[in-house]
């Protein structure tokens, strides 16, 4: 069954949307994992069009933003209600179970030569679109296939959404170029539900049932799998390589995974560089690092400690200028290169949080909504490398009941995608200049505020 999944996209690659839309048109895809997703991706490649993957964990508002920003003219989806909700009515064909629905014909906004526009998980309600060329994506897949060739991986199981660039390129494309079978199952059958829920037992059983030899995980998924697995668990016996990325992985978790037989290797990357930048490999791994840069990547550390990446840069942000061919990409991460060239990532340069599920969230987004409810005088949202976001809330009135705050948090959560929702909260004393947790004008000093609240924050994650 899985081998058929690997070949089926090739059979569909020419059953493309070319007869319905002009060359260079932008098409979106909103669908669960499956062979038809890859078929559409390859078909759009071959037709010289631009694909805009829409993650299922986005809100309708974020979908609309991506569709408008990309001037999308058609959308592939399995559920016609999604097409109708987003203004795409006329059905104009199908690829497997995915129907192509046509929409308005806006003026093109995607620069020539861009094959894919990948939207980040959304640091705000309007995530940026990263423009990538076809050559850049396939070059990275070829490099990864070469780096992993000695492992002779024959069966890759997609555990992350294909709408996430890491799985799309490092998973599906790399397997395709390696001649490996790509096992594409609906996410509910592999254990991932939404952007912040995961069933490790189901995932382990699926790995065993499909005899998968490679998978890609987020740190929180790895943590759950390690907790659920037994030492020498037979369900892991077929695995040859587990890549973990999307957020920083605690070294202690890597150690615990190795102790239970997980062949796990940490990497580092970002959408602006096509996903993977560096990766630990068998025989070339250093504990606590994100591996050495790939052969097609250059990494340097700026004077302020920011990691910068050269080689294979994006074609720019949607609506922005194209970078120079020799441009270096500022990652927003702080790090260092050791004497042997291994990259060590130390943390975020900006306020943007990266959750344990690899989702990027600007804390100001939910904080602003909390302040807008009228129940919070101040709010501090935390969640770096954590499974969910939490908030320290300073009540607008000291005698405000907890029930009122809880109701306000619930209302805010309804306006947010699941990865940006507040999973827990606690009442906090005011942040101010006196203890260094805020400036004179009330702007939070985040590091100091987090340090003061550390005991309360840690208790929320026990």
Topology:
Elements: H1 2-12, E1 26-30, H2 35-47, E2 50-53, H3 60-69, E3 74-77, H4 80-85, E4 90-95, E5 98-102, E6 114-119, E7 129-133, H5 134-147, E8 155-157, H6 165-178, E9 181-183, H7 187-190, E10 192-193, E11 197-198, H8 200-210, E12 214-217, H9 219-228, E13 241-244, H10 251-259, E14 264-270, E15 275-279, E16 292-293, E17 298-301, E18 306-310, E19 329-337, E20 343-348, E21 353-354, E22 360-361, H11 364-372, E23 376-382, E24 389-395, H12 402-414, E25 422-427, H13 446-452, H14 454-460
Which short descriptors sum up this protein?
single chain; alpha/beta; Rossmann fold; GMP Synthetase, Chain A, domain 3; 3 domains; five-stranded mixed sheet; 30% helix; ANL_N_sf; AMP-dependent synthetase/ligase domain-containing protein; AMP-dep_synth/lig_dom; ligase; ligase activity
What does this structure look like?
- Residues 22-305 form the AMP-dependent synthetase/ligase domain.
- InterPro entries: AMP-dep_synth/lig_dom, ANL_N_sf, ATP-dep_AMP-bd_enzyme.
- Keywords: Ligase.
- It comes from Massilia oculi.
- This is AMP-dependent synthetase/ligase domain-containing protein.
- The structure is a single chain.
- This protein has helices at 2-12, 35-47, 60-69, 80-85, 134-147, 165-178, 187-190, 200-210, 219-228, 251-259, 364-372, 402-414, 446-452, 454-460; strands spanning 26-30, 50-53, 74-77, 90-95, 98-102, 114-119, 129-133, 155-157, 181-183, 192-193, 197-198, 214-217, 241-244, 264-270, 275-279, 292-293, 298-301, 306-310, 329-337, 343-348, 353-354, 360-361, 376-382, 389-395, 422-427.
- By secondary structure, it is an alpha/beta fold.
- Helices cover 30% and strands 25% of the residues.
- It folds into three domains: 26-110, no CATH class; 134-348, 3-Layer(aba) Sandwich (Rossmann fold), CATH 3.40.50; 353-460, GMP Synthetase, Chain A, domain 3 (2-Layer Sandwich).
- Mean pLDDT is 90; it is low at 1-15.
- Helix 6 (165-178) links the parallel strand 8 and strand 9 (181-183).
- The protein is globular and about 65 Å long.
- It is built from 14 helices and 25 strands.
- Strands 2-1-3-5-4 form a five-stranded mixed β-sheet. A five-stranded mixed β-sheet has the order 12-13-14-15-16, sandwiched between helices.
